[in-house]
Design goal:
This protein is of the alpha/beta class and about 400 residues long. It has ten helices and 21 strands. A seven-stranded parallel sheet has the order 11-15-10-5-8-9-16, with helices on both faces. Strands 18-17-19-20-21 form a five-stranded parallel sheet. Helix 5 packs across helix 6.
């Protein structure tokens, strides 16, 4: 229930300008809430006099049978769908089949409709569209208001977010405002007794914890990229399209984006979480200088250089290259682990690689337990030999 304290309301109109669903009108200097209200809370956040309050239903009074379908919040970046969105849809379809509900996609952006076919062809049954010129880039206030409004109106059973920079900002804000549970960085999702079982590393990655949200709906989780199998293109163009007509008044926003400056990187450099071939180094590399040996091999393979947390903490390589629980999750065709012992925290980030090759002086290193191929030896001797071998192989083509 939403309430307006007439004694506190000044009729300033900020709430009316902010409401993305056009549910507020100022009548005789008092905010009047219409039936279009979704209880998204956008007005509460901007009210300078605390005149607007929302009283949500107690858990005991919530009828969970009204919550249906599995939603994924798709991520659009640089006018492209990030692959993690298709990975989330793949898992949503699996969960939906078990629950006999529908896998659905929420598309938010300035040109969201152009991506409908990509998700419909991959099996989405419903696609919710929120399109506005101001939604070109992710912005916390607007995106969270839209997602909260959609959840309040349509009542999904499960909502999955990508564990990206944007997703990790959006999901907890939605969870906090709607007073919902949220499990971050899940590595597996399944259904047990009708509930979402959310699995993630805990206690420094030493154990895997199974988490449920028994008292709130929707159940929500973020999932790291390269963990789930992406939904395949089935060419089944038949999703129900639900357009959400929103209005966004930029004047009502607390913060305003003045300029977005993109980071500058070598145009030939491949992000570690997008590479098919990764040559990764750990403490056993010995020093920053020796990473050049790994870079040479990665360059020949047209891949990327990765790293364990130990080598990042030592300042040998940037944090952006870190693979593992506190870094990137990768799933390349070939992962070459050089001087990496193989702690569970690192394995979490690369265990889904098609082929793992381990190079280590220590024959007892745990990394050999997960490797498809192992080489016991000095990486400073072994890696240059591999580099030369690949050079010769590629030069013959």
């Amino acid at each position: 229930m939403i309430n307006v304290d007439e004694k506190k309301c000044t009729g300033c109109g900020i709430c009316e300008q902010t409401c993305p669903f056009g549910a507020i009108k100022i009548v005789e200097k008092i905010a009047i809430i219409g039936d279009e209200c979704t209880l998204c809370g956008a007005c509460v956040q901007v009210c300078n006099t605390a005149a607007i309050t929302i009283q949500r239903k107690k858990v005991d009074n919530v009828d969970f049978s009204k919550f249906r379908d599995i939603w994924i919040i798709a991520e659009i970046k640089n006018n492209k769908i990030r692959n993690v969105s298709f990975e989330l849809l793949g898992k949503a379809k699996e969960l939906a089949d078990e629950l006999k509900q529908d896998p659905c996609v929420v598309l938010i952006g300035n040109n969201a409709k152009k991506f409908i076919k990509e998700f419909s062809n991959r099996g989405a049954k419903k696609i919710y569209i929120a399109e506005h010129e101001s939604l070109k880039d992710y912005y916390t206030e607007t995106y969270s208001s839209i997602v909260i409004g959609l959840i309040s109106r349509y009542k999904p059973n499960i909502v999955l977010y990508p564990a990206t920079i944007s997703g990790r900002d959006l999901a907890p804000r939605v969870a906090s405002i709607l007073e919902l549970g949220l499990t971050a960085d899940c590595t597996e999702l399944s259904i047990r007794e009708g509930r979402l079982l959310q699995t993630r590393p805990a206690f420094g990655g030493n154990i895997m914890a199974d988490i449920i949200s028994p008292n709130t709906r929707p159940q929500m989780a973020t999932v790291r990229p390269n963990v789930m199998e992406a939904a395949s293109n089935e060419e089944n163009y038949g999703a129900e399209i639900i357009e959400t007509h929103i209005k966004i008044n930029l004047k009502g926003l607390k913060l305003k984006i003045k300029e977005i400056i993109s980071g500058t990187i070598d145009e030939n450099e491949i992000p570690v979480d997008e590479a098919d071939f990764i040559v990764s180094g750990g403490r056993g590399v010995g020093c920053q200088e020796n990473f050049k040996i790994l870079e040479d091999l990665a360059r020949v393979l047209k891949g990327a250089v990765g790293a364990s947390r130990a080598s990042v903490d030592l300042g040998w390589i940037p944090k952006s290259q870190q693979v593992g629980q506190s870094g990137k999750t990768v799933s390349p065709k070939i992962y070459i682990a050089c001087g990496i012992s193989g702690t569970i925290q690192h394995l979490v980030g690369m265990k889904t690689s098609d082929i793992i090759i381990a190079i280590n002086k220590d024959p007892e290193a745990p990394i050999f337990n997960v490797a498809n191929y192992g080489i016991v030896g000095d990486l400073c001797e072994v890696v240059p030999l591999l580099t030369e071998a690949f050079k010769k192989k590629f030069s013959k083509k």
